[in-house]
Description:
The protein is of the alpha/beta class. The chain has helices spanning about 5-15, 155-160, 200-210, 225-235, 260-265, 300-315, 370-375, and strands at about 20-25, 40, 50, 55-60, 70-75, 90-95, 105-110, 115, 120, 130-135, 145, 165-170, 175-180, 185, 200, 215-225, 245-250, 270-275, 275-280, 285-290, 290-295, 330-335, 345-355, 360-365, 380-385, 395-400. This is Molybdopterin molybdenumtransferase. Its cofactor is Mg(2+).
Amino acid sequence: MALMSVEEALSRVTQSVTTLGIEEVPVEQAAGRVLAMDLKARRSQPPADMSAMDGYAVRGSDIAQTPATLLVIGESAAGRPFEGGVGPGAAVRIFTGAVVPEGADTVVIQENTTRDGDRITTTAATAALRNVRKRGCDFLEGASGLKAGRRLTSRDIMLAAAMDHARLPVARRPRIAIIQTGDELVLPGRGTGAPGEIVVSNAFGLAALATRAGAEVTDLGLVSDDLAEIRAAVARALDGSFDLVVSSGGASVGDHDLMAPALRAEGVDLYVHKIALRPGKPLMYGSRGDVRCLGLPGNPVSSHVCALLFLEPLVRAMQGDAAAIVRTAPARLAVGVPANDQRRDFMRAHMEHDPDGSVRVTPAASQDSAMLSVLSAADCLLVRPPFAPAGEAGDPCEIIPFHD
């Protein structure tokens, strides 16, 4: 059977994904959540003409000639505006963030004045309309300030709060169950040191990645390579408590690779299996009803690379994230690389940034899919298309930078 392309597999994984509903959260808890509806300003910012400097609010026409002497008739401070108006020949002492009084249209900074009692004299020219933040110059009431599908940053939270929103509509987080299979696996700190033991690592990386993408993760624990036990774990994960089931291990076709039979036995339709991808060829994907299932390889690097390429975009798409798909970035090879075969290759690599802003990338010497030390030391994946010819140092290439 021909291997499915990475592009086709990703299309099948993310196609027809719908968001899981909307919930409201306090604005202070919304960072990292995906906005579910366009957010409009409930007020204008600033709500009135405001001073951008400490100085004196005046009529621009009164200071057209320098020096100009004006009568100080009051003071306007932030939160304590001057109640009157500014007529010809008058000035109001004003501070940054204070409302510009009616009649004034310009602020002369205090460094450009001298004061004698209740009179000031300008000592340098100030153009009319200077040093004033006009009402609504940041945003106007009713304006759409944040669009649905945006993953909210700390900066977005500031804007939402300034637009007078105490609570924000966000997409519900996907609920994910993780199943890790393998007779050889033991939990960190729980092993005996026997030669056949392997300390489990995949589930922790998958949970961290899915949580970063916005999911709520439940680890269903280690499951032995037994069809009945795997079916029981899958059945538990499909009981309606979760939106997505993610397994690691048992995805290939060996005698002990039982995840695909277990999923099918529990009514899961698999429509992705075996990808033209390295590392990660055995990846599986399917669904039963509204619950989606993603089966990842057991080799640690394969599992994590597949999670970066498929799990994270899927979790983001389930929240309506407008930036769900993994994006590549341009770079240049720092060394030569051999020609590629029919599989799309994602090689662990290291970036170097040149003074001109360009990036040179060097793949790790070993690309063994079990070597976590190489994955941890890498800061990007070098992407090699199927049947790519041999590349030389300086040739253009594509990379996927790590962001954690």
